[in-house]
Design brief:
- Helices cover 81% and strands 0% of the residues.
- With 213 residues, the chain is an all-alpha fold.
- The chain has one domain: CDP-alcohol phosphotransferase transmembrane (TM) domain (Four Helix Bundle (Hemerythrin (Met), subunit A)), CATH 1.20.120.
- The longest helix is centred in the last third of the chain and has 36 residues.
């Protein structure tokens, strides 16, 4: 059973527009032999550097690296489609790379919260990390059961947009308030998404069970 794909707080039109804007670059990269896996690896590297800069409380330069890493995360799929589709290995690496990127980004935020003595930022970062991982896990587990669970306000692309906006606020205002708010928003929205996906799977399995009896 499938469910409508949700981009959460990011509109479907914005998501399509981003992929459309990257399509010419994706085709050009595919034409010269750049592989989706290479872009995935490069995107993780950019996120690692950006997270390290974030931990050093350099939000403006961190934003540049993290935004580029986020675009690479979309671009690898664009290149895969331009190369006659992706591979199972590519899908595995992409999913694994997303978890690595999430981990280092939230770890950097937690480090800033710890070094500043900001309990809200520290615990919010840990909560956002835990909820984000569980959101991804529930989708993967649901798909292994033949159920599409993509509902909810905070899929990964939405979480990244919120975090990047928080970093923009930090860079422009010079205070952590906007970033802390973004982290807490991600934690709350990811938790809501987790509950919605769990409920969807429970309903779907209940319907399957009742249909078999």
């Amino acid at each position: 059973m499938s469910s409508p794909v949700s981009h959460g707080v990011v509109s479907a039109r914005a998501a399509r527009a981003t992929r459309g804007a990257l399509a010419p670059l994706g085709r050009a990269l595919a034409a010269i032999g750049v592989t989706p896996n290479a872009i995935t690896a490069f995107g993780v590297l950019l996120t690692l550097v950006g997270s390290a800069l974030l931990a050093q409380e350099r939000p403006l330069v961190a934003l540049a690296f993290l935004a580029a890493g986020s675009l690479a995360d979309t671009l690898d799929g664009v290149v895969a489609r331009a190369s006659s589709g992706g591979t199972k290995l590519g899908a595995f690496l992409d999913s694994t790379a997303d978890r690595v990127a999430d981990a280092v980004l939230f770890a950097a935020a937690a480090y800033v919260g710890s070094s500043r003595g900001d309990a809200v930022l520290f615990w919010g970062s840990l909560g956002a990390l835990s909820a984000s991982f569980l959101v991804s896990y529930t989708r993967a587990k649901a798909e292994s059961l033949g159920i599409g669970a993509t509902v909810g306000p905070a899929p990964r692309e939405a979480r990244l947009v919120i975090l990047l906006l928080g970093i923009v606020g930090w860079a422009l205002l010079g205070t952590l308030a906007a970033f802390t708010t973004a982290i807490v928003a991600v934690a709350i929205l990811a938790t809501i998404t987790l509950v919605q996906r769990t409920a969807l799977v429970a309903r779907s399995l209940a319907k399957k069970t009742s249909g078999e009896t």
